[in-house]
Amino acid sequence: MTHSLVGKMKTELNLLKPSDILKFDQDISGIPDIIKLTLGEPDFNTPEHIKEAGKRSIDNNRSHYAPPAGTPGLRKAISNFLKEKYNLFYNPDHEILVTAGATEAIYTVLTSILNPGDKVLIPTPIFPLYIPDTILAKAEPVFMDTSSNGFVLSPELLEETLAKHGDAVKAIVFNFPTNPTGVTYRREDVKALAAILEKHDLFVISDEIYSELTYGEHHVSMAEYLPEQTIVLNGVSKSHAMTGWRIGFICAPAAITTELSKIHQFTITSATTMAQDAAQEAFENGMDDGAEMRVEYEKRRDFVYEEMSKAGFACVKPEGAFYLFAKIPETMIQKSLDFCTDLAYKAKVAVIPGGSFGPGGEGYIRISYAASMEQLTEAMSRIANYAATISEEQGSVQR
């Protein structure tokens, strides 16, 4: 009976498999003394003033349903944050929707805008969640491999892809600073891509969850140039080390937000009230909380980049987020899953296979440097020893 019922479930589920990232992380977790540089989880704790706001919310019995779009106080705080930080203007009453993390935001947007047969342009390598959500909506992901252009989508590749797929293209996804490469889009990049996209009647989904973690140039939002087309996704998970609070948000023109709110309401009703109160405190009185974390991440980035380069791994130096995407040397195992498995068991360091992030990712590994310097120092030492051992073995074979 159970087997026959499973066969009657949603057909698209047959096309999906569990997250490669989570599965690999679980598979290697039992290795003794393993150092895990796998997940995008800040190792900082939520700032004290935010935790206190969450406690006050509980003490004040803020344990009832919030309005589906989010508490008025949080939406107002988000609106002010985006105006002050990124020169974006969203009406808190009609153009902001609070979600259960950026993950729900991605699901809500894609399932709201897509119809069967639609196409979604996805520059890769990229955080893979957009792909199964697109498939669940019976739409087709169209991959644009950016690996030959420093992991930045070029105007030429965008125009070529749009010309090839025509009116079937419903949306394009951007995620920058980018998971897994740490690359971001500079103002000139955003402006050049926007000049092309404004000629097309499509949604621009801009996942900017790492916007507060850029090194050097200030983050520039797609919505600054394409306010009528862009749906901005963001949240407090990375900027304020609040992954477990599960607060994200969507910003878009009022007519679009009204439609998005339908899927949101029918999926979760509303985000957790006391978590929203904590997020309000984050935006009102901790607008720059991410700055201290960013300084530390930049030190870690420089260290990991230098050490991986010494070990023979070619890397694009990250400009944001807390990931480094490293090319596996030709002398080593080239299939990323096999390489990462070998590294985990022999060197006791866990990193994520690049093949998990779409076309252009195979042959690379993603290192999360959201870990202590002590852990990173030991991990880099182990990787260097692993690389040296392989080099010695290669030399013995040649002799």
Automatic annotation (TrEMBL):
InterPro entries: Aminotransferase_I/II_large (IPR004839), AspAT/PAT-like (IPR050596), NHTrfase_class1_PyrdxlP-BS (IPR004838), PyrdxlP-dep_Trfase (IPR015424), PyrdxlP-dep_Trfase_major (IPR015421), PyrdxlP-dep_Trfase_small (IPR015422). Its cofactor is pyridoxal 5'-phosphate. GO terms for biological process: amino acid metabolic process. Pfam families: Aminotran_1_2. Keywords: Aminotransferase, Pyridoxal phosphate, Transferase. Residues 33-383 form the Aminotransferase class I/classII large domain. It is an enzyme of class 2 (transferase). Gene3D superfamilies: Aspartate Aminotransferase, domain 1 (3.90.1150.10), Type I PLP-dependent aspartate aminotransferase-like (Major domain) (3.40.640.10). PROSITE patterns: AA_TRANSFER_CLASS_1. GO terms for molecular function: pyridoxal phosphate binding; transaminase activity. Its EC number is 2.6.1.-. It comes from the Bacteria. Signal peptide: none annotated. PANTHER family: AMINOTRANSFERASE, ASPARTATE AMINOTRANSFERASE. Belongs to the class-I pyridoxal-phosphate-dependent aminotransferase family. This is Aminotransferase.
